[in-house]
Amino acid sequence: MPNNMESMQERFQKELDIFNTIQKDIQKCLQTREKLDAQLTENTLVKDEMALIEGGSSVFKLIGPVLVKQDIVEAKSNVQKRIDYITAELKRQEDTMTESEKKQESQKEKIQKIQHQFQQAQVKAAASQSS
To answer: Taking the model in full, what pTM does it have?
Structure first.
């Protein structure tokens, strides 16, 4: 019986390690999502500001330490492309989060099942020793 208990403990530890890895993945997704949200907000503000620009105004883009004049239509197009890209990345992160949360829930159920089996084995071991 002790050998069976040891294998259950090893199985429990293995499943717990998988659970912890999934939790770390969820944390990474959350951090990435926060960065993407900040970038989306920033780019949306830029788009809103660019909508206020009048026809004869100039737009400059910072490239390294230099400001380079940029065509306003091209600048608006670039900002919109960034917004589209960031929005797609946010969707991908949401999908990854949902999948990871499902895995986490499944792993949690496995761990609970092993704990229950371990407790039953302990009760059986205690009952056989007292007999």
So the answer is: 0.78
